[in-house]
Amino acid sequence: MTRSALFAFAFAACGGVSGDDLGDGMMELPPLLQEVSGVVAVDAQTLACVQDEKGVIVLVDLTARSKPRAIVFGERGDYEGVARVGDDYWVLRSDGRLLQIREQAGEWRIVATVRVSEHRQEWESLCYDAQRGRLLVLPKDGVGKDKDARDLRPMLAIDPANTAVAPEVIATLSRRVFQKQAETNGIDLPKRTTDKGKVHVELDLACSELLALPDRRGFLVLSASDGVLLRVDVDGRLLACRQLDRTLLPQPEGMAWLADGRLVIASEGGAGGTGRARLLVVAVP
C-alpha cells in the first residue's frame, strides 16, 4: 500500500465522532485501532495511538468532541511502542528500529532511525522518561536461546538529542527472579493448576509496554500474555503486581499517563476481531 493509499485508507477508517468518551474510565477506540499497540498522551484531551500493522498514528479525542485524526508516517510494518518528546513522535518497530518522526512541510516524515540492539529480539516497549530526559526500550523476549539468556529482558536508554544508545543497561528484568521475589514478599502472580492438581506460578513476562514512574523510583511493566501490570524499582526488583480483567482488557498492549495523572491501558479487540479495542483507566499497583 502506497503512502497516498494508506492516507486515504486511514482517513476513511477513522470515521466520525463515536460519542463514547473516557468520562467513565473506559472508551472504545475507532475501528482502525482494532490492533492498537502503543499510546501516549499529547495534551489534556488527546491520546496518540499507533496502529500495529500500518505506519499510522491516530489522534483520539478523549472527550469525543471531535473525530479521530490520522498521521501517516510510513509504509506497512510491525509497529509497537510510541513516545513523544517535544513535538516529535518516536515509534518502536518490533525488529528493534526506533523511528524519529517529525512534521516537515505539512507532512510527517521519518527523520532518523536508531537500531537499539544487535540482538535478534522482538521489541515492543517504549516510553519517554521525562525526569531523566531519555527514551527507554524493553524487549518482549530474552537476549538469547539458552535457558539463562531466555529469562532476561534488558532495559536500554536512548538519548533523543543525539540518538545515542547508552552502553550501560538500565535494569534487567528476570522471570525467575520475579518469581522468587513474589514468593518472598507475598506478591500474587498468575498461577495455573496442573492435571495432577499442583499449583504453579506461570509468568511469561512477554513485555508489551513500559512506563517510567513520575517519582523517579521505578517503572511499570505490562505483560500482555500474562494479563498483568507489574511495578518494579529502578534496579528491576519486583514490588507489586496487578492482575488485569481479561474481559475488559483481552490483549493489553499499551499504556500512558494522562495529563491528570491517571494511568490508561489500551487493549486490542478480542481474538478473531470480536469486540472493539478500548482504553481503560487502571489503578497503579
Relative strand content: over 45%
Q: Number of DSSP strands? A: 23
State the CATH architecture.
6 Propeller
Rounded to an integer in angstroms, the radius of gyration calculated over CA atoms is 18 Å
The overall number of domains is: 1
Major sheet characteristics: 5 strands, antiparallel
Mean pLDDT, to the nearest integer, reads 90
Q: What is the end-to-end distance?
A: 42 Å
The CATH topology assignment is: Neuraminidase
Structural class by secondary-structure content: mainly beta
Can you tell me the residue ranges where pLDDT is under 50 for at least 5 consecutive residues?
Answer: none
Write the layout of secondary structure elements.
Blueprint: H1 3-14, E1 26-28, E2 36-41, E3 46-51, E4 56-61, E5 69-72, E6 79-85, E7 88-93, E8 97-104, E9 107-115, E10 123-129, E11 134-139, H2 147-150, E12 152-159, E13 164-165, E14 171-174, H3 175-185, E15 191-193, E16 199-201, E17 207-212, E18 218-223, E19 228-233, E20 238-243, E21 251-257, E22 263-268, E23 278-282
Antiparallel strand pairs: 1-23, 2-3, 3-4, 4-5, 6-7, 7-8, 8-9, 10-11, 11-12, 12-13, 12-14, 15-16, 17-18, 18-19, 19-20, 21-22, 22-23
Structure, described:
By secondary structure, the protein is mostly beta strands. It has one domain (3-282): Neuraminidase, CATH 2.120.10. It is built from three helices and 23 strands. The protein has helices at residues 3-14, 147-150, 175-185, and strands at residues 26-28, 36-41, 46-51, 56-61, 69-72, 79-85, 88-93, 97-104, 107-115, 123-129, 134-139, 152-159, 164-165, 171-174, 191-193, 199-201, 207-212, 218-223, 228-233, 238-243, 251-257, 263-268, 278-282. Strands 10, 11, 12, 13 and 14 form a five-stranded antiparallel sheet that branches. It is globular, with a radius of gyration of 18 Å. The model has no long low-confidence stretch (mean pLDDT 90).
